[in-house]
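Case 811 in the screening queue. Each case pairs one protein sequence with one candidate compound; here the compound is flavin-adenine dinucleotide. For every case the pipeline is the same: read the inputs, emit a complex structure as tokens, and attach any notable structural observations.

Predict complex for case 811.
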Amino acid sequence: MKSRTKVVVIGGGIAGCSTLYHLTQEGWSDVVLVERNELTSGTTWHSAAQVTNFGMNQTMVGLKTHSIDLYKELAEDPEYPINYHHGDGGIRLANTEAQMQGYRHFASMARGMDVHFEVLDAEECARRHPLISTDNMIGGLWDPLDGDIDPAQLCQALARRARKAGAEVYRNTPVTGLTQHKDDTWTVHTEHGDIDCDIVVNAGGYRVNEVGAMMGVHHPVASMEHQYFLTEDIPAIKDAGHRMPLIRCPISDYYCRQEKNGLLVGFYEQDCKTWGMDGIDPNFVNALCPDDLERVMDVLEGAFARMPALADVGIHTVVNGPITYTIDGAPLVGPIPGKRNAFCIIGLRAGLGEGGGHGWLLAQQIVHGEAQYDTWCIDPRRFAGHTNVELTALKAIEDYQNEFRFHFPHEHRPAGRNARTTPLTPVFAAEGAEFTVVNGWERVEYIKPTPDFHPTLGFGFDEAFDVVAAEVRNVQDNVGLCEVNGFNRFEITGADRHAFLDRMFCGTVTKRDGRVGLGYLLNPHGMIKGEATIANIAASERGPGRVWYGSAAASELHDMDWLQSHLGADEDVQIRSLTNDQTILVLAGPKARDVLSSCARGDWSKEAFPWLSVRECFIGYAPATVLGVSFSGELAYEIHVPNASLYAAYLALREAGEAHGMTLFGARAVDAMRMEKGFLHWKADLLTEFDPFETGLERFVKLDKGDFIGKAALLERQAAGPRKKLVTLKIDASHAPAHGGASLMRGDAVVGTVTSGDWGHRTGLNLAYAFVDPEMAVDGNSAQLDLCGTLVEATVIAPSPYDPEFSRIRG
Ligand SMILES: Cc1cc2nc3c(=O)[nH]c(=O)nc-3n(C[C@H](O)[C@H](O)[C@H](O)COP(=O)(O)OP(=O)(O)OC[C@H]3O[C@@H](n4cnc5c(N)ncnc54)[C@H](O)[C@@H]3O)c2cc1C
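Case 811 output:
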């Protein structure tokens, strides 16, 4: 066994084997995999091992395409061929028009990744799968590349190739401890000795938190018991002359694929069970949980009704094994929050299908610092500290129960609600608020017209359209108040704070006390890493001179890691998160200044407190810090208040607002308004796949200011010219917004991909942002948007169609 290596991957299931192989593919051969037992002795050995191309966004589709391409190549390797049935095809069934609409959207989205799904009616589904009945079903989504693979052979093939490239695999070598040293390197302690290394990777499967505990972290991953059974031969399959396509059924929560001449049928029962919550028997190796078909009776009946042939055939094997879930159903693949040189590839619930792609993207992150796709949807830092073991288990159960039921736009499921609230949450609830969840925070979406107001879930504009329109109107005409909780805010102090930030941002960010600026952070490849508002607060009785760094609610752990990892050892800079201590109340509208002036002492005139100013004050008697910034396009103030004083500030603002017709508005109104102003959302429109020039942020780049992170690469990118350009589009449709991922077509060619869309209530325009081919990025150019299966005209317009001069914001 080596005593020193570059990377130690802990775990020899599909996650670990794929990571090891891909590290060698990215050029690192001095890498090691350590497995406590034999390869694939965790969940991988008993997996149903279906491999689909279906994903909810382009990153997931892209990584699954990588799995499929890689597995095909492995299957055809004459030196070590493996069993992979690809191209059997698979159908995701639907019994509602809303599900069909979703499938049409996913087909539009996948097309941008060169993946071609088909939306089928019920008869065509039955024609392709002769064993199913069309009762209570209206159609489905066809994935032509669906199939299944032999999981043990797959892992052996990956390990074999990795070994050939120089990697080493140590079986029967349990990792017993991890020590991190001052220089951020690690020692991995095993039963057979220690291995020093630069980087560790947790690929521990259902033992993820045993390995996590060795480095002092708890990962939001919980295991569920999951069962399938295998039937005897079915004559109709034997006689069919072709393999049966796979079935995934959100109506009765089961899946089904051919296994030899019978079927393998797996279940996602409502009466489901977590596993291993109180520790895992160390001898649970190559092991299964006891069968319990009683538990799946409800879903079994649905499967029998859909496939009557099942009722006449014997079951010869039942498999019940642990499968891992996370808070939002997607795995955690990337850097471990709060740790240096530590990565994970965990929480895989479809690890055989996805594992090839996840290992690929993880290896790219480890070797190059970033992967070729934006990996936020699988980034371990996308949750914050609220994701404890109990919440994780509740969300895992909910996710398991809804395995094949995708989230609709604006759908927020009931488990684990109120995980993060402010003193105003019950106040807004009493006012009739509908809440959305942002990184665990309950955020007001809009105020319901009646208590029993429940818009229909779907991909079109829903019944809340007019409610949101009314909220926007009052912000435009009078003034509105909105709580933005969980907004990420770091306080940065120390004499070197400005020099530090200057290095982090690609533009000039104001250093003047009392002034606010917006800036962008790039990665070393010159791509967009982050966006933050910088507010310079002068020394006062509340603290020394300091910078407030404000960014998206979900960015807390991500941005903290990024900033901390770039701090020089001798730099006088301290960073502290205030995210959980303060909440923002946004006051927006032409009468916002009047409201503020009547509850906060001081001169709030345009001259004394112009746009992009910051000032400490009191709202009534609640201490507050006011920023003159706007995301709505109206005159607006962000009022930051310590949570202990939030209710007092709210009461003062409500009282002051009464004379000015102030009403509440929510996140949906904010989102609609920001589209009319060309304002972008981090991780919807601001992605690591694009540089600031491609994203239309030239005015925030200052190439002549001295060095900053990403500058060298950005200069090269600028010389090469853009591959895509972000544009604003006017969509010629009034029934539905454009959804992120949807494709823009010219004939059969995809010429762009939507990032965001919403109705602009002040302009009367259906608006979208999209990255398009540079030739298309000219005002007046048009293409056809595949809007859930219907082609509609989409025309490029100038950004900020509402008040392009910004005169309203300046007040
Ligand atoms: C019944 C069932 C059916 C499934 N069907 C499908 C399907 O059809 N398609 C699909 O894509 N996915 C399916 N899955 C999910 C899929 O099998 C898993 O996502 C995948 O196998 C997880 O792989 P892994 O490498 O993350 O974990 P594991 O396979 O559990 O591997 C983790 C490894 O880490 C090792 N390890 C743990 N602790 C240590 C330590 N301290 N030191 C050294 N080594 C350690 C373990 O021994 C283990 O070998 C199914 C799962 C189940 C239970």
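Case 811 observations:
- The two ends are 69 Å apart (CA to CA).
- The chain has a mean pLDDT of 97.
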